[in-house]
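Hello, quick one for you while I still have it in my head. A protein chain has come my way and I'm curious about its shape. Can you walk me through what the tokens say about the fold? No rush at all, and the record is pasted right below.
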Amino acid sequence: MPIVTTLHTILREPDPDQRRVLEEVAALSDRLVVMSERGCEFLQEIYHVAPEKIDVIPHGIPAVPFVDPSFHKDLFGVEGKLVLLSFGLLSANKGIENVIAALPAIVARYPNVVT
């Protein structure tokens, strides 16, 4: 029976144990599925996984009905303000630290951003 492993987060700077575990998982898997081209690059460049073993299947878009964004902004008391959002696992490879560092400049340029 083939083993297919889906990887949602691929660390760019793994410690030795993290690297060993992912390399073992890759060696035991017939195929690896990642969500992005960047993940595919990390597997090849950092973990030395053969490209023919990797498939990229991007995150899908949920089929939910459209809701006017003003409904949620009113609900949370941020109507008329700019809201910065992120989703998924917060880790260094998401670059959230860059947004945090840039917040003073963002607020200076866009005073109506939610802080």
Q: What stands out?
A: The helical segments are 16-28, 37-45, 69-75, 96-109. The chain has four helices and three strands.
